[in-house]
Amino acid sequence: MVLSEPYWDHHIPLPKLGPLHSRLVTAFVALICFINSYNGDFVFDDSEAIINNKDLNPDTPLSNIWKNDFWGSNLSSNSSHKSYRPLTVLTFRINYLLAGGLHPIGFHMLNVALHCVISVLMIDVFAILIGGLVHDGRGVKLNLSPKASFLAALFFAAHPVHTESVAGIVGRADLLCALFFQLSFLVYCKAFQGGDKKFSVLWIFSSILLCAVAMLCKEQGITVLGVNAAFDILMVCNLDIYELAHRLLSRRKSADVSDLFKGCHSFGPNDLWIDFYFLLVLLFLGGSFLLYARWRIMGTGPPSFTEVDNPASFAENVILRIVNYNYYYSLNAWLLLCPWWLCFDWSMGCVPLIKSATDWRIVWPLLLWCCLMGLVYQALCSQDSNKRRLLTLGFSRETEPVIDFIGLMSSLTFSFLAQVHYNVGKNLADRGNQSAAVKYYREAVRLHPKYVHAMNNLGNILKERNELEEAEELLSSAVHIQPDFAAAWMNLGIVQNSLKKFDKAEQSYWNAIKFRKKYPDCYYNLGRLYADLNRSIDALNAWRNATMLKPDHSLAWNNMVILLDNTGNLAQAELIGKEALKILPKDHTIMFSLANVLGKQEKYKESEGFFLNALKINPNVASCHGNLAVLYHRWGKLDLAKRHYELSLRLDPNAPGTKENYNMLKRKLEQRQRTVG
């Protein structure tokens, strides 16, 4: 393909730098603009995606990242949003491993580094989009618009619209997706670097593979195939859009347009039309396979969202939904031009819905479409071929983020307060500052009376503060607004259990299980309810269900051992305890409970081993020293008993029963000394 240098390039008031210098400058600008985020903390969505995500922990099997969503929930769970981004989670895990824990500086620095790399690659992308795909006689790609591509990359590097993706650690999904999106596009372009109008099938398949990698970082990576197809039509085949529109509008036969594809490449001496269709079929089949795989991974069902997550989708009728979607598009389009207000999340009513034709904001969608139609007219009818090509290809690249603004542009909306108060409250609660968190949660509920997640979190805090009546009221409201909110049903059951409303609590637990079939924590709490009601068999069954769904559910295992111990089923308690320790070999609480069971069976030596192992793991548990002392006391090892009684009382002077047992031992020792004397 031979193209002349765009006529505007030499008018741009920038020095014409060499490839290396332009890349260094672009990387430096990207670094300077975002380096101040390096010492940020984990905030907002980082809590769920990183701090509370067990898939980052090196002790968790690496295979879990391929089974769980971005937030660490199993993809088969009803509560999963189906955001499947295993490669992004893998980079978080590597950060965790290299830093030896959750230290945010490493996470932030990698985000900044990725932004610098992406900004540098944008020079190559813009060079192709603006100046075309041109090679010299040796097959080396030429940049016919060095100033324009450099300037565009500088704008990209410094644009504030990238703030959340770079400064927010969870924005790494956007960064990685963008990186492999770029690489897929550039590799696709590399397929056409040969002469004689030939293309390389190997590079095409490589591009599709990189598209798959982009999808594994964030779902929107699939859209690069559409961009590649548009690039093939508009720049490789050099389709004349103006002439095509003219012929179609003049109602000529479709066969008349075949001469417009004279620039098409091929991979052999076959008919160019056949090769052109073959290429598009490759992209279509590759994309179809990736979408099918993604659909199967999701469990062949879409994610479930609530009105709080996506208010526009729950508008009264289709017309209002369309109007609100287009209003969101107009906001995002404006923020690309004038990003002077930004927000980290668009949901939770941050953008009030347009509910009638009298709402003045309806002007913005109309203005957006007027501008778009004007650009479409220029793309189709301009006499300037460069302008037509740039606008048309630009539409192919920019339509996707507009249409899919929820995914890629969710951070670019009004900085309204409902969501802000919720996230600040959650962050404070995660840090243990519950009093401050309550104030923010209350404000979030006041601003958004149907904000069920805020109600649930506030209800939890009130439950822990023993303000049970208000907690019950909030959680009841939450499940009334969203009847399938399983977590709120479970928490409501816990509160009702504490209020001695046992029948209601049982029903709430079963409602939670109804809406989330695999809910081990709910089975655990249901077991506690049955234990309180002395329904031992039901309690054991509930806890067994919890351990089947979550084999490492320590509390459920331990409660089974304790209940069987308390009901005199010592042999069964021993079996359950040893079964649990095969799964949780370092769980000192289960060791402690099993040691008590063995001690009651007078298996002193074995019991002693479990007590000592528990103390190796956690040496400062007063009850463990106290019960080991009782074991030695019964076993006749009085000196060891005395030592551990004293250790127990040193750790907890008010340990129940320990002081009495210690006094009994001292009397026995004194009696023994008198007898010896």
From TrEMBL:
GO biological process: endoplasmic reticulum unfolded protein response
Keyword check for Protease: no
InterPro entries, per database record: O-mannosyl-transferase_TMTC, TMTC_DUF1736, TPR-like_helical_dom_sf, TPR_rpt
Secretion signal span: none
TPR repeats: 418-451, 452-485, 486-519, 520-553, 622-655
Keyword set, alphabetical order: Endoplasmic reticulum, Membrane, Repeat, TPR repeat, Transferase, Transmembrane, Transmembrane helix
Superkingdom, taxonomy of origin: Eukaryota
Localisation per UniProt entry: Endoplasmic reticulum; Membrane
Entry GO CC: endoplasmic reticulum; membrane
UniProt membrane topology term: Multi-pass membrane protein
Enzyme nomenclature, EC number: 2.4.1.109
Pathway, per record: Protein modification; protein glycosylation
Matching SMART domains: TPR
Location (main, coarse): endoplasmic reticulum
Single GO molecular function: dolichyl-phosphate-mannose-protein mannosyltransferase activity
Domain DUF1736, first and last residues per copy: 301-373
TM ranges: 20-38, 112-134, 169-188, 200-216, 276-293, 325-342, 362-381
Family: Belongs to the TMTC family.
Protein name: dolichyl-phosphate-mannose--protein mannosyltransferase
